[in-house]
Amino acid sequence: MLLAGPVTADLQGSPVAVDRLRATLESAFVVSANGTASGDQEVQLQLRLTGAEHGEPPLSGH
Q1: What tens digit of pLDDT does each residue of 28-41 get?
Q2: Segment 4-30, tens digit of pLDDT
Q3: Euclidean distance between CA atoms 19 and 14, whole angstroms
Q4: Is 48 exposed, middle or buried, given 0-12, 13-18 or 19+ CB atoms closer than 10 A?
Q5: CA-closest candidate to residue 32, choices 49, 13, 57, 17
Q6: CB 6, CB 50: distance < 8 Å
Q7: Any residues with CB less than 8 A from the CB of 58 and at least 6 apart, and which?
């Protein structure tokens, strides 16, 4: 999927669910974490998504 510009995604839920969604997003976009907050059973995470340059897949570890 191509993005016209950066997108911010706010994730909230159990640590396992947030980790799974983040991993899925990282397989399609370049992802950087802008902030996190952790509670006893819930995680809040803000991600910044950008598209890969020239249609290439994102590099692992982003």
Answers
A1: 999 999 888 888 89
A2: 889 999 999 999 999 999 999 999 999
A3: 9
A4: middle
A5: 49
A6: yes
A7: 26, 27, 28, 29, 30, 31, 52
**Residue 23 token pair:** 């991993």
Q: What are phi and psi of 45, to 5 degrees?
A: -140, 135
Determine the residue type at 25: L
What b/e string do you get for 6-21 counting C-beta neighbours within 10 Å, with b at 16 or more?
eeeeebeeeeeebeee
The token pair that represents 44 in the structure block: 């809040």
Q: CB under 8 Å to 36, separation ≥6 — which residues? A: 43, 44, 45, 46
